[in-house]
Amino acid sequence: MQRLMPLLQLQPWRRFYLAMVLLCFIWLMVEPTLDFSMVQTPVKTVLITKPISLLMIMMLQLKSLAMWTIQNSKASLRSVIEKYSRTSLPQFPSNNVTSKFGTVKVSKVASLFESLDVVCDPVEVIETEFPMSMESVGQMFGFLLYVSEYPGKASISILSIPKVHDRAQIFVSCSLMDDRGSPRYVGTIERWSNRALAIPNIKCSSNTSLFILVENMGRVNYGPYIYDRKGILSDVILDGSILHSWKMYPISFGQLNNLLKDDSIVQVTSTRTGLWSEEPRFYEGRLYIDPLDKIEDTFISFRGWNKGVAFINNFNIGRFWPSFGPQCTLYVPAPILRHGENLVVILELHSPKTDLTIEFVENPDFTCGSKSRHV
Ligand SMILES: *[C@@H]1O[C@H](CO)[C@@H](O)[C@H](O)[C@H]1NC(C)=O
Ligand SMILES: *[C@@H]1O[C@H](CO)[C@@H](O)[C@H](O)[C@H]1NC(C)=O
């Protein structure tokens, strides 16, 4: 048994290869005897058992191969990078400890629509007859807001966007300043399940403004997706006619500090929470790290939040979508944190966690989302 140990310590693909060789060998050994007794042995048994056992061995090996790949991917990626880069790479950091910084309460909220002049420089707004792709207006990542208007006479209007990459949230409000309220969320049109949307009449004395916030959810850059343009790539059709005269607002997150200084920020009062309509908003909280504490890596948990992007000290931590899952935490590396106050800003596209808190936890969590996922 002692002698067999090195065999078990081999890398899985070597074990797989060895097992295959061994199987062929055994088969060669037993085949003549089988042939001899084939008269009695039902041919079926051999034909069935052989592929099944082979399949089982293969499946077991593939499973361990997959686990091994996950464990070693960091190391193998590193070796590939090392091979092709001229400079030598720094040492792997040791398995650093992580910290649980606890709960941060959201202290300020700002609507994306009310902060448009902060997240989009007015000179960058583009006006065209028909919607253009994100790339053609120079917005390579993130979000682009498309705005148009229509008379809104029918009691229900049907909106369809035959081609939208990747996810469009639709809002309406009245165009005229006098009866303009905060844009009302009417639904989402997604690239994968592209359905027409029914928009109720919001009874404006003026035209109805249509806001389409399109998210670029990332690129695959492979095969048929190599030229994957983003944004609205077709006409926008309302009740059978094409909408004209569009304004496009490229959204930029470079000025989040300014956003928080802006007057449009509403102080959060607990009575208002939970009553809000669904709307993209920025939520700000402050994480305080005691100067006597060590700053360590941590994870930010989005359990209870919906979908959006998070920023810590103006550093884009990443996107979250816990209702889709399975990931509910994002890694926060220690170097972006500092002693004292740390600015945490969350752009939540739908509705926030009801108690308006942001949790900093010690461990990653991959248990979010429902089984019946809908993309
Ligand atoms: C992580 O570990 C490395 C190596 O031990 C150490 O040099 C580094 O300071 C650690 N980083 C943090 C944030 O503790
Ligand atoms: C209302 O929208 C239509 C386009 O659908 C436009 O032609 C018209 O000028 C708008 N009316 C006003 C008052 O802005």
TrEMBL record:
- Transmembrane intervals: 12-30
Is-annotated flag, keyword Nucleotide-binding? no
Question: Biological process GO terms, please?
Answer: carbohydrate metabolic process
Presence of keyword Metal-binding: no
Task: List residues of the Beta-galactosidase galactose-binding domain.
Answer: 280-342
InterPro entries of this UniProt entry? BetaGal1-like_ABD1, BetaGal_gal-bd, Galactose-bd-like_sf, Glycoside_Hdrlase_35
Q: Name one GO molecular function term.
A: hydrolase activity, hydrolyzing O-glycosyl compounds
One Pfam short name? BetaGal_gal-bd
Q: Which Gene3D superfamilies match?
A: Galactose-binding domain-like
Query: So what family is this one in?
Result: Belongs to the glycosyl hydrolase 35 family.
Q: Which PANTHER family match?
A: BETA-GALACTOSIDASE RELATED
Entry protein name? Beta-galactosidase 8
- Organism of origin is Iris pallida
